[in-house]
Each structure stands twice: as C-alpha cells, then as structure tokens.
Specification:
- With 278 residues, this protein is mainly α.
- It is 79% helix and 0% strand.
- The protein contains 14 helices and no strands.
- α6 runs parallel beside α12.
- It is globular.
- The two termini are 24 Å apart.
Length: 278
C-alpha cells in the first residue's frame, strides 16, 4: 500500500527531532530544574517548606477557590452550551462572543475591573463598606477573578460537541413524553460526558494555576489571601529559593496529574466522536 507522505525520510526525522528538542527544552528541563532545586538542601528542607503553615494555608485556599469556581463554571457551561447548540434566539452570536471574552482580555485587566467595581474607591465600595461586606482582598474576590478567567473552558468544549450531535435525539425523547430534565439526564448528558470531563479538567487546572487576576484582587496578605502561585512568588522574591521551588513542586505535581488525566480524556473523547460519526 502506497503512503500519502511525500516528504523525504530525513526531513520527517528532522521535524520530529526539532519537536522533541523543543519539548525537552521548554517542558522537561524546567520541570527537572524545579524538582532539583526543591531538593537541593535535602528532603528535610523540602518537607519543612511544604509543611510551613503559610504554604498549607495557600494550598487550602487554592483548592477552596477551585472547589467553588469549577462547579459554578460547570453549571454555566452546561446552560450556555445547551442554549447555543439546541436553540435559536436573538443575541446568540453575542453570547458566543462574550464566552470568548476572557481569552482576549489580560487577566491583570480582569482583576483591575473587579477592583474598580468592588474596591473601597470603586462603584460599589461605599455600599459594601457600610454593610461590612468585603470582596476585594478577600476570598470572594479571588473566586470572582477565577470565575472570569475560567468560565469559557467548559462551554467551549461542549458547544461544538453538542452542535455536531444535533437536536434529533432530544426532540425524539420529548416527542415520546420525556420531561426536559429526563431528556438532559438520559440523552444529552451521556453523549457529552467525556467532553464535559475534559472541559472541567482544563477549567480546574487554570483555576489552580491562575496568577494575574488573582494577584490584583488578593492584596498579597500572607496566610490569608495568597494562593499557591502568589505564595511561590513571595518566597522567590525573598530569595528563599528552596522553599519557593518546594511549593512549586505541588503545582507541578498537580500539572502532571492533569496531563495524565487529560491524555486519557482526549482518548475517550476521540472514541466518542468516532463512535458518533459511525
């Protein structure tokens, strides 16, 4: 059987070598450096940095923010993708554009917007102060900034999948007397489950690693509003390199787990699309 590849063998191997070299230089080598620097003074110093109360507080805060933002993004992503893929309505194109907005706005600008809205000198600042409600430099501000940065991920994974699947199965279920909730639970959700999980994974990874927007609204209050990326920055700026890289290994470990799960979900996602096409 003849192959459709017309490039000479040496060119193909050269391109593969360039790709692998780029990955090694920009991904593998920095990861090795992170772990090497983290253990440069031994396991005791590494464990001491990980067990530091401020590091543990930053880890808990990071997981807390992600635990709040990701479920809210799941609800929004499902609702938005369902509406866009299954219905025709005025303003549909505008909704799709707004979903893509965080991809075109700098995270720092997004954080600044929340400061201008909810800060002490912002639009709602006096009202919040009079009612003893604090959003900026507190956990609610971190959650809002993370929500803005991460809300496209679930919707952007589901919209093309739902559009490709069409509306026929849902319409058939409704014509047979199924309720809207039963149709979603028994027809739509099984068809999109792998795409949904993939979107949730990307959303969670971005939520835990977000720096720019969170940095603006956090106030960098040690032990209170510093997430893991912010805590790493403070340690590095204080020339506490071992502790900074030790805490960075936590994020690196989460990234490696995310990569493994992402590869698995991509495989199942491709199988789902192939099965649907067949």
């Amino acid at each position: 059987m003849k192959t459709a590849v017309t490039e000479p063998r040496w060119l193909r191997w050269l391109l593969i070598a360039l790709a692998l070299g780029f990955l090694a230089l920009n991904l593998a080598l920095p990861l090795i450096v992170v772990f090497a620097e983290a253990f440069r003074k031994g396991a005791d110093a590494y464990l001491a940095a990980i067990r530091d109360p401020e590091a543990l507080t930053a880890l808990r805060l990071t997981l807390t923010v992600a635990a709040i933002a990701v479920p809210l993004n799941i609800v929004f992503g499902l609702a938005a993708s369902w509406a866009i893929a299954k219905f025709d309505f005025r303003g549909k194109a505008l909704l799709v554009t707004l979903i893509d907005l965080p991809f075109s706005v700098s995270p720092v600008v997004a954080g600044l917007i929340y400061v201008l809205l909810f800060g002490m000198q912002g639009w709602f600042g006096p009202w919040l102060r009079d009612h003893d409600v604090q959003i900026i430099f507190a956990v609610p501000g971190l959650v809002l900034a993370t929500l803005f940065i991460t809300f496209p991920f679930v919707a952007r994974e589901l919209i093309p999948l739902m559009e490709e699947q069409g509306r026929e199965e849902e319409e058939a279920a409704l014509s047979l007397g199924a309720s809207g909730w039963a149709t979603f639970r028994r027809v739509t959700l099984p068809n999109i489950r792998w795409g949904l999980l993939y979107g949730v994974l990307l959303c969670n990874a971005r939520a835990m690693g977000e720096f720019g927007a969170v940095s603006v609204v956090s106030g960098h209050i040690r032990g209170k509003t510093n997430t893991l990326p912010l805590h790493i920055e403070i340690l590095y700026n204080e020339y506490n390199f071992v502790a900074a890289f030790a805490v960075a290994t936590l994020l690196a470990g989460l990234a490696l787990v995310t990569l493994v799960v992402k590869s698995f979900l991509e495989w199942r996602y491709a199988e789902q699309l192939a099965g649907h096409g067949a």
